[in-house]
DNA sequence: TATTTTTGTTCCATCGTTTGAACAAATATA
DNA sequence: TATATTTGTTCAAACGATGGAACAAAAATA
């Protein structure tokens, strides 16, 4: 009932009266093998339900055709969409991916990196956890000779290929839009400034305010992990303050959802009293009541480009120049900020 | 700067004047190796930053210490929590996991199974996609001699270890509760009945209605994929019908969220006009306004038990008896159904 | 016909680790 | 002291696939 033992090239060779090496060459379309034998071998391979042994070929070739993908949370449309597109692209090129999540924890991220290196992936495509400031483990990837590509959350000092959007410009798009809607007191629920993308969003926000001659109030820039509870708590804090903002720009959609809940619970009119803009274009932003304005980060593009960057590295291993791809952000205006 | 070549047991052996095999045995705590040598080997291993070559040892041992986990969606608290607990348990026992998602698609699921088999995982722990009716690929896992454990969505005919909750009883809990809140016209937004767990929920729902002498209306049992749009659309459909239900029991929280949105958009008082109960205890159910009553499926327990089932199989490979673990569901009553 | 080239295959070492068997040295038992 | 047992290590053969070198046979060129 159960044909326990899997067949190997040896079995095929035995049946056909060939050597294993001839079979291997036939399967790999070696030019010196006759068409006749190739055909016979391939037919027999199907017949015996032969599955190449990944471990042995990877060991021999020193190449696993596996790529590790590390993302902070899998439970986010942006990240899962990026992964989906990485996978699509890599599958086309004979690679399989192994997806792991850090849950935004530095310790977990280190562990995942170790696991991936242990399994001997050919490369790692990653977006860093919020907690991560020590780049030691990423250096380790590089020093092991494993390819590394970063997307979204990546640090320049690592000096590796990177794909992301122009975060500085995103903030300008948001502020410009809010100003056009007659908002004058714009607060920013930010991510931690030790992460480059959030630092850039903060910088863009400040520069844009300055551009429009608006006050920059330090207590209107509040950094957090951007979880839903963070959004709720910080929004409450902003409402309790002596002077309320008339617009809130949140550096993540999940936190924006939390902020929205608090606004609704306090019967605040959106966008009339306070306008709200999120970041990432998570699907739920179009489903809330009111729907939330946000920034589209082109997750499909990012995934595809990150995969291509990896493939490029693999085909040109000597190339030293680092490639940084920065995409244009796109503002999506919805009910939560459309006053006019 | 980059110490390209990774060290092997050969390198350690060379430095210490031993053979590779002695080093291997020392690292694996073989009883016949002296403590002195073990110590020396282990120190040198650290010094040379030795990382065991996973590929070669897996090849030699015929065991990869890798477990594949297939879930329908990663973007769900239930599933990601199960995976987290599987991982925790397996890591403690020297296994690493590879997480993959089917996106509820049969084709994707088959592809993931093939990838996992190719990588030669020691076992697969899976919850089946909504689409899956053909069990051929799961049979393939078994016939390859790879261990298989199913959780939540699993079919009995596969005859493998299973961990899940008592879905039939869950429906009784929900209906009993709704009846206690004076609901008399209870509709059911269901999953597809070709999936065992949804079939059981439907069966439980019907039997419970019968128990309370309530009418079973066939047009009040509507099957779907239970996505957010499904919940929205079906709720709208129920509202448009000549006779409206006074309670809706949704077989999934995401769809329940969609239903809630539609109820709110139509200014229907919850739970007074229509009470709502979901399924799975996704975190957002406690955050919505009103919060949603739901069923706790004990995702942490399920993950732990599924991992243990796998570990058991590995340590007793000959055991033929199949283990089905059925946990007790727990009803969590929140605002959306608390009339009294 | 003698020689070179091409073609199709086999031979063999290799990737890094593991493991049973073999063996010498040290220790215990008679 | 002779023999049996234990201890610590080496030897050699795997695991399955790969690929360069070697080699014989067939075909092409002189």
Topology at a glance:
The structure is a homodimer of 340-residue chains.
Chain A: H1 9-16, H2 20-27, H3 35-47, H4 54-61, E1 66-71, H5 77-92, E2 96-101, H6 106-119, E3 123-126, H7 136-143, E4 147-151, E5 161-165, H8 167-180, E6 186-191, H9 196-211, E7 221-224, H10 228-240, E8 247-250, H11 253-265, E9 275-277, E10 294-296, H12 299-315, E11 324-327, E12 330-332
Chain A binds a DNA duplex (30 and 30 nucleotides) through helix 2 and helix 4.
User: Uncertain segments of chain A of ≥5 residues (pLDDT<50)?
Assistant: none
The overall number of domains of chain A is: 3
Biggest contact: A-B, 41 and 42 residues
> What is the count of helical runs of chain A?
12
CATH-assigned fold name of the largest domain in chain A? Rossmann fold
The largest β sheet of chain A comes out as: 6 strands, parallel
Determine the oligomeric state from the structure.
Answer: homodimer
Write down the secondary-structure element order of chain A. HHHHEHEHEHEEHEHEHEHEEHEE
SSE-based structural type of chain A: alpha/beta
Helix percentage of chain A: 40-55%
Beta fraction of the residues of chain A?
A: 15-25%
Distance between the termini of chain A: 71 Å
The CATH C-level class name of the largest domain in chain A: Alpha Beta
Average pLDDT number of chain A: 93
At CATH level 2, the architecture of the largest domain in chain A is: 3-Layer(aba) Sandwich
């Amino acid at each position: 009932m159960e044909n326990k033992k899997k067949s190997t090239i040896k079995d095929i060779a035995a049946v056909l009266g060939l050597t294993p090496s001839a079979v291997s060459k036939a399967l790999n379309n070696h030019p010196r093998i006759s068409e006749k034998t190739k055909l016979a071998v391939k037919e027999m391979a199907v017949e015996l339900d032969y599955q190449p042994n990944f471990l042995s070929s990877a060991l021999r070739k020193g190449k696993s055709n596996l790529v590790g993908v590390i993302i902070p949370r899998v439970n986010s449309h942006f990240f899962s969409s990026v992964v989906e597109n990485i996978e699509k692209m890599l599958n086309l090129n004979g690679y399989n991916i192994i997806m792991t999540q850090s849950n935004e924890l530095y310790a977990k991220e280190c562990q995942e990196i170790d696991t991936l290196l242990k399994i001997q992936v050919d490369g790692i495509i990653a977006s860093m956890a919020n907690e991560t400031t020590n780049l030691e483990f990423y250096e380790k990837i590089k020093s092991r000779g494993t390819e590394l590509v970063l997307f979204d959350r990546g640090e320049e000092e690592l000096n590796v290929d990177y794909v992301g959007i122009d975060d500085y410009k995103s903030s300008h798009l948001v502020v410009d839009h809010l100003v056009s809607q007659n908002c004058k007191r714009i607060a920013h629920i930010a991510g931690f400034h030790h992460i480059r993308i959030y630092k850039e969003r903060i910088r863009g926000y400040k520069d844009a305010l300055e551009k429009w001659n608006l006050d920059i109030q330090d207590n209107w820039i509040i950094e957090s992990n951007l979880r839903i509870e963070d959004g709720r708590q910080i929004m409450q804090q902003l409402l309790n303050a002596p002077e309320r903002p008339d617009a809130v720009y949140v550096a993540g959609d999940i936190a924006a959802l939390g902020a929205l809940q608090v606004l609704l619970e306090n019967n605040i009119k959106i966008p009339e009293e306070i306008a709200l803009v999120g970041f990432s274009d998570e699907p739920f932003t179009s489903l809330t009541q009111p729907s939330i304005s946000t920034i589209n980060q082109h997750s499909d593009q990012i995934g595809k480009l990150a995969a291509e960057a990896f493939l490029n590295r693999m085909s040109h291993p000597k190339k030293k120049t680092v490639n940084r791809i920065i995409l244009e952000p796109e503002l999506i205006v919805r009910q939560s900020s459309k006053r006019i």
